[in-house]
Amino acid sequence: MPANELAxxxxxxxxxxxxxMFENLRFRLGEGIIDLELDPEHYEQAYNYSVLTYxxxxxxxxxxxxxxxxxxxxxxxxxxxxxxINVRQCxxxxxxxxxxxxxxSFDPFSSAILNxxxxxxxxxxxxxxxxxxxxYVELAARMFGGYxxxxxxxxxxxxxxxxxxxxxxxxxxIWADVTRPETTLLQDPGITPWMYDFTLxxxxxxxxxxxxxxxxxxGPGGGTALNGAAMKAxxxxxxxxxxxxxxxxxxxxxxxxxxxx
Length: 261
Prior knowledge:
By secondary structure, the protein is of the alpha+beta class. About 40% of the residues lie in helices and about 15% in strands.
Protein backbone atom coordinates (compact mmCIF):
# COMPACT_ATOMS: atom_id res chain seq x y z
CA MET A 1 0.00 0.00 0.00
CA PRO A 2 1.57 3.36 -0.98
CA ALA A 3 2.37 5.82 1.76
CA ASN A 4 0.05 8.78 2.21
CA GLU A 5 1.88 11.90 1.05
CA LEU A 6 -0.12 14.02 3.49
CA ALA A 7 0.82 11.89 6.49
CA UNK A 8 3.24 13.26 9.07
CA UNK A 9 6.68 11.88 8.00
CA UNK A 10 7.94 10.91 11.44
CA UNK A 11 10.58 8.58 10.00
CA UNK A 12 12.37 11.24 7.93
CA UNK A 13 15.57 12.99 8.94
CA UNK A 14 16.21 16.72 8.60
CA UNK A 15 17.78 16.54 5.15
CA UNK A 16 14.84 14.55 3.77
CA UNK A 17 12.35 16.98 5.27
CA UNK A 18 14.19 19.96 3.81
CA UNK A 19 14.45 18.36 0.37
CA UNK A 20 10.70 17.68 0.36
CA MET A 21 10.14 21.31 1.32
CA PHE A 22 12.47 22.65 -1.41
CA GLU A 23 10.80 20.46 -4.01
CA ASN A 24 7.41 21.86 -3.02
CA LEU A 25 8.74 25.42 -3.28
CA ARG A 26 10.31 24.85 -6.68
CA PHE A 27 7.02 23.66 -8.11
CA ARG A 28 5.14 26.55 -6.51
CA LEU A 29 7.57 28.95 -8.18
CA GLY A 30 6.89 27.37 -11.55
CA GLU A 31 9.94 25.19 -12.12
CA GLY A 32 9.53 23.12 -15.27
CA ILE A 33 7.45 25.86 -16.86
CA ILE A 34 9.89 28.75 -16.46
CA ASP A 35 13.58 28.98 -15.67
CA LEU A 36 14.36 29.95 -12.08
CA GLU A 37 17.43 31.97 -11.17
CA LEU A 38 17.86 30.15 -7.86
CA ASP A 39 20.76 28.00 -6.68
CA PRO A 40 20.61 25.45 -3.83
CA GLU A 41 22.29 28.03 -1.59
CA HIS A 42 19.35 30.40 -2.08
CA TYR A 43 16.89 27.79 -0.84
CA GLU A 44 19.12 27.03 2.13
CA GLN A 45 19.49 30.68 3.13
CA ALA A 46 15.77 31.36 2.75
CA TYR A 47 15.02 28.35 4.94
CA ASN A 48 17.52 29.44 7.61
CA TYR A 49 15.98 32.92 7.65
CA SER A 50 12.54 31.37 8.15
CA VAL A 51 13.77 29.31 11.10
CA LEU A 52 15.42 32.33 12.73
CA THR A 53 12.34 34.50 12.22
CA TYR A 54 10.00 31.89 13.63
CA UNK A 55 12.13 31.25 16.69
CA UNK A 56 12.36 34.97 17.36
CA UNK A 57 8.61 35.62 17.18
CA UNK A 58 6.70 32.43 18.04
CA UNK A 59 6.05 30.91 21.44
CA UNK A 60 5.57 27.48 19.88
CA UNK A 61 9.23 27.38 18.81
CA UNK A 62 10.33 26.53 22.36
CA UNK A 63 9.40 23.89 24.91
CA UNK A 64 9.93 23.38 28.61
CA UNK A 65 12.69 21.05 29.67
CA UNK A 66 14.12 19.72 32.90
CA UNK A 67 17.70 18.54 33.10
CA UNK A 68 20.07 17.48 35.86
CA UNK A 69 23.48 19.11 36.13
CA UNK A 70 26.17 17.47 38.25
CA UNK A 71 28.30 20.10 39.98
CA UNK A 72 31.98 19.92 40.87
CA UNK A 73 33.70 21.14 43.98
CA UNK A 74 34.69 24.84 43.93
CA UNK A 75 33.32 25.32 40.39
CA UNK A 76 30.46 27.76 39.86
CA UNK A 77 30.36 28.27 36.04
CA UNK A 78 29.05 25.71 33.54
CA UNK A 79 28.12 25.67 29.84
CA UNK A 80 24.68 24.42 28.83
CA UNK A 81 23.78 22.97 25.40
CA UNK A 82 23.12 25.41 22.58
CA UNK A 83 19.39 24.57 22.60
CA UNK A 84 18.92 26.39 25.92
CA ILE A 85 17.57 29.92 25.47
CA ASN A 86 16.29 30.69 28.95
CA VAL A 87 16.65 29.27 32.45
CA ARG A 88 13.59 29.68 34.64
CA GLN A 89 14.79 28.25 37.94
CA CYS A 90 17.41 25.98 39.50
CA UNK A 91 16.59 23.59 42.33
CA UNK A 92 18.67 21.46 44.63
CA UNK A 93 17.50 17.94 45.34
CA UNK A 94 17.83 18.54 49.08
CA UNK A 95 18.38 21.37 51.52
CA UNK A 96 21.06 21.80 54.13
CA UNK A 97 24.67 20.67 53.94
CA UNK A 98 26.62 19.97 50.74
CA UNK A 99 28.92 17.05 51.47
CA UNK A 100 27.92 14.62 48.71
CA UNK A 101 25.47 13.71 45.99
CA UNK A 102 22.53 13.10 48.31
CA UNK A 103 23.68 14.63 51.60
CA UNK A 104 21.48 16.90 53.65
CA SER A 105 20.93 17.89 57.25
CA PHE A 106 18.77 15.51 59.29
CA ASP A 107 15.32 17.01 59.77
CA PRO A 108 13.42 15.63 62.77
CA PHE A 109 10.20 17.38 61.70
CA SER A 110 10.23 15.59 58.34
CA SER A 111 10.82 12.27 60.08
CA ALA A 112 7.91 12.91 62.45
CA ILE A 113 5.60 13.72 59.53
CA LEU A 114 6.70 10.55 57.73
CA ASN A 115 6.00 8.34 60.76
CA UNK A 116 2.77 10.00 61.84
CA UNK A 117 1.09 10.99 58.59
CA UNK A 118 2.37 8.73 55.86
CA UNK A 119 2.98 5.45 57.68
CA UNK A 120 -0.06 5.71 60.01
CA UNK A 121 -2.43 7.57 57.76
CA UNK A 122 -5.45 5.60 59.10
CA UNK A 123 -5.04 6.99 62.59
CA UNK A 124 -3.63 10.51 62.23
CA UNK A 125 -2.99 13.28 59.79
CA UNK A 126 -5.16 14.98 57.21
CA UNK A 127 -5.08 17.47 54.35
CA UNK A 128 -4.43 20.39 56.68
CA UNK A 129 -1.44 18.62 58.20
CA UNK A 130 -0.04 17.82 54.78
CA UNK A 131 -0.57 21.42 53.65
CA UNK A 132 1.36 22.69 56.68
CA UNK A 133 4.14 20.24 55.93
CA UNK A 134 4.32 21.23 52.25
CA UNK A 135 4.48 24.90 53.24
CA TYR A 136 7.24 24.11 55.69
CA VAL A 137 9.29 22.34 52.99
CA GLU A 138 8.91 25.28 50.59
CA LEU A 139 9.86 27.82 53.25
CA ALA A 140 12.86 25.75 54.33
CA ALA A 141 13.99 25.50 50.71
CA ARG A 142 13.87 29.28 50.31
CA MET A 143 15.74 29.86 53.55
CA PHE A 144 18.36 27.11 53.36
CA GLY A 145 19.45 26.84 49.76
CA GLY A 146 16.78 24.74 48.07
CA TYR A 147 16.60 27.34 45.28
CA UNK A 148 19.96 28.17 43.72
CA UNK A 149 20.68 31.76 42.72
CA UNK A 150 22.22 31.97 39.26
CA UNK A 151 22.95 34.13 36.22
CA UNK A 152 22.48 32.84 32.67
CA UNK A 153 23.93 34.25 29.44
CA UNK A 154 21.66 33.28 26.50
CA UNK A 155 24.43 34.05 23.97
CA UNK A 156 27.32 32.04 25.40
CA UNK A 157 24.96 29.54 27.14
CA UNK A 158 26.97 29.82 30.36
CA UNK A 159 25.28 29.58 33.72
CA UNK A 160 26.98 30.82 36.88
CA UNK A 161 25.74 29.76 40.29
CA UNK A 162 26.12 32.30 43.07
CA UNK A 163 27.34 29.56 45.35
CA UNK A 164 30.59 27.89 46.35
CA UNK A 165 29.93 24.17 46.20
CA UNK A 166 31.88 22.33 48.89
CA UNK A 167 31.58 18.88 47.33
CA UNK A 168 31.36 17.14 43.97
CA UNK A 169 28.56 14.94 42.72
CA UNK A 170 25.50 16.91 43.81
CA UNK A 171 22.88 17.28 41.06
CA UNK A 172 21.08 20.54 40.33
CA UNK A 173 17.69 20.40 38.59
CA ILE A 174 17.46 23.08 35.88
CA TRP A 175 14.04 24.21 34.67
CA ALA A 176 14.57 25.86 31.29
CA ASP A 177 13.15 26.73 27.88
CA VAL A 178 14.85 25.04 24.93
CA THR A 179 14.37 25.42 21.19
CA ARG A 180 12.40 22.71 19.43
CA PRO A 181 14.45 20.79 16.85
CA GLU A 182 14.11 21.70 13.19
CA THR A 183 12.78 18.23 12.45
CA THR A 184 9.91 18.99 14.82
CA LEU A 185 9.24 22.38 13.23
CA LEU A 186 9.00 20.77 9.80
CA GLN A 187 6.54 18.11 11.02
CA ASP A 188 4.31 20.14 13.34
CA PRO A 189 0.96 20.61 11.54
CA GLY A 190 0.65 24.15 12.88
CA ILE A 191 4.17 25.28 11.99
CA THR A 192 4.96 23.51 8.70
CA PRO A 193 2.59 25.54 6.46
CA TRP A 194 3.96 28.76 7.91
CA MET A 195 7.54 27.65 7.27
CA TYR A 196 6.70 26.82 3.66
CA ASP A 197 4.91 30.12 3.03
CA PHE A 198 7.54 32.35 4.64
CA THR A 199 10.38 30.58 2.83
CA LEU A 200 8.48 30.97 -0.46
CA UNK A 201 8.00 34.68 0.20
CA UNK A 202 11.73 35.08 0.90
CA UNK A 203 12.61 33.27 -2.34
CA UNK A 204 10.33 35.62 -4.27
CA UNK A 205 12.23 38.64 -2.94
CA UNK A 206 15.51 36.99 -3.99
CA UNK A 207 14.19 36.36 -7.50
CA UNK A 208 12.88 39.93 -7.62
CA UNK A 209 16.29 41.31 -6.70
CA UNK A 210 17.88 39.35 -9.56
CA UNK A 211 15.28 40.27 -12.15
CA UNK A 212 15.14 43.93 -11.15
CA UNK A 213 18.78 44.40 -12.13
CA UNK A 214 17.68 44.40 -15.76
CA UNK A 215 14.20 45.71 -16.48
CA UNK A 216 14.11 44.12 -19.95
CA UNK A 217 15.85 41.38 -21.89
CA UNK A 218 16.84 42.19 -25.45
CA GLY A 219 14.95 40.32 -28.14
CA PRO A 220 12.73 40.64 -31.19
CA GLY A 221 9.97 43.19 -30.99
CA GLY A 222 11.66 45.34 -28.34
CA GLY A 223 12.61 42.58 -25.88
CA THR A 224 10.86 41.07 -22.86
CA ALA A 225 10.01 42.94 -19.66
CA LEU A 226 10.97 41.24 -16.38
CA ASN A 227 8.74 41.21 -13.32
CA GLY A 228 11.44 41.90 -10.75
CA ALA A 229 9.64 44.76 -8.98
CA ALA A 230 6.40 42.81 -8.89
CA MET A 231 8.12 39.73 -7.42
CA LYS A 232 9.78 41.81 -4.70
CA ALA A 233 6.52 43.53 -3.79
CA UNK A 234 4.65 40.21 -3.73
CA UNK A 235 7.33 38.60 -1.56
CA UNK A 236 7.30 41.49 0.93
CA UNK A 237 3.51 41.38 1.09
CA UNK A 238 3.49 37.65 1.77
CA UNK A 239 6.14 38.04 4.48
CA UNK A 240 3.98 40.63 6.24
CA UNK A 241 1.01 38.29 5.99
CA UNK A 242 3.04 35.48 7.55
CA UNK A 243 4.12 37.71 10.43
CA UNK A 244 0.51 38.71 10.99
CA UNK A 245 -0.39 35.02 11.11
CA UNK A 246 2.05 34.62 14.00
CA UNK A 247 0.35 37.49 15.82
CA UNK A 248 -2.94 35.63 15.27
CA UNK A 249 -1.42 32.40 16.69
CA UNK A 250 -2.18 30.25 13.63
CA UNK A 251 0.82 28.06 14.53
CA UNK A 252 -0.85 26.83 17.76
CA UNK A 253 1.22 29.15 19.94
CA UNK A 254 -0.31 30.07 23.28
CA UNK A 255 -1.75 33.61 23.28
CA UNK A 256 -0.77 36.17 25.86
CA UNK A 257 -2.69 36.09 29.15
CA UNK A 258 -3.53 38.65 31.79
CA UNK A 259 -0.66 39.69 34.04
CA UNK A 260 -1.45 40.86 37.54
CA UNK A 261 0.97 42.60 39.86
